[in-house]
Structure formats: structure tokens, C-alpha cells
Write a structure and sequence with these properties.
Elements lengths: L1 E9 L4 H17 L3 E6 L8 E8 L2 H11 L3 H13 L2 E9 L9
Antiparallel strand pairs: 1-3, 1-4, 2-3
Length: about 100
């Protein structure tokens, strides 16, 4: 399993727009075989940083999702919404190998 950690720099004046964008992606990741662990929006501290975590069975499955999402109309709508609202200023991805509770037994 591989987990993608996305760190977003967002416009703090457009948190509502970013939240709408985030709500679009949760079911889309799942549509393509991933498990979305949620978005984490600013609460205390930095007001312009948001995080997302989602997993795929393998890096190959993640790469297939990336490839297929480009042609998917719902994914394209999410990309366009972010572009139109300019709620995401930048983002960076990291890939992690999770150690989960069931892995400790």
C-alpha cells in the first residue's frame, strides 16, 4: 500500500471554495480504487495550509488513477473548479508507506 500526502497552500480567504473542491475529490479517489482518509483544513496555527491523505494498493495503482483521472469528466470538473476559484495556490505530494494497527499484530 502507498499513501499520498498532499500539502496545499491555499488562499485563506477562499477556505469555503477549497472545502468544496476537497469534497469533490473524496468520492473521485474512491471511484478509482483508492481510499481517501480525508482533508485536514486550517483550524489553529497557519491559516493557509491544508492536508490530504489517500491510499492506493500500490504505486502502480496510484499512477493508473492519475492517468485515468485526466480523462474523467468529474475529475476535469474538479480541476476546473480549482482553476476558476484559484483556491489552491500550490501543492506538493509525498508518498508514504503506512504502518497500520493491523500491521502490529
Amino acid at each position: 500500500m502507498i499513501t499520498c500526502h498532499v500539502r496545499y497552500v491555499i488562499d485563506p480567504k477562499k477556505i469555503a471554495q477549497f472545502e468544496r473542491y476537497a469534497r469533490m475529490w473524496i468520492p473521485l479517489v474512491e471511484k478509482f480504487g483508492g481510499t481517501h482518509h480525508g482533508y485536514f483544513l486550517p483550524a489553529e496555527g497557519a491559516n493557509n495550509i491544508a492536508l490530504a491523505l489517500f491510499s492506493f494498493p500500490s504505486l502502480a495503482a496510484y499512477e493508473q488513477y492519475r492517468h485515468d483521472s485526466v480523462a474523467d469528466p468529474d475529475c476535469q470538473a474538479a480541476f476546473e473548479y480549482a482553476e476558476q476559484t484559484d483556491c489552491v495556490l500550490s501543492y506538493e505530494r509525498s508518498f508514504l508507506r503506512p504502518l497500520l494497527a493491523q500491521d502490529t499484530k
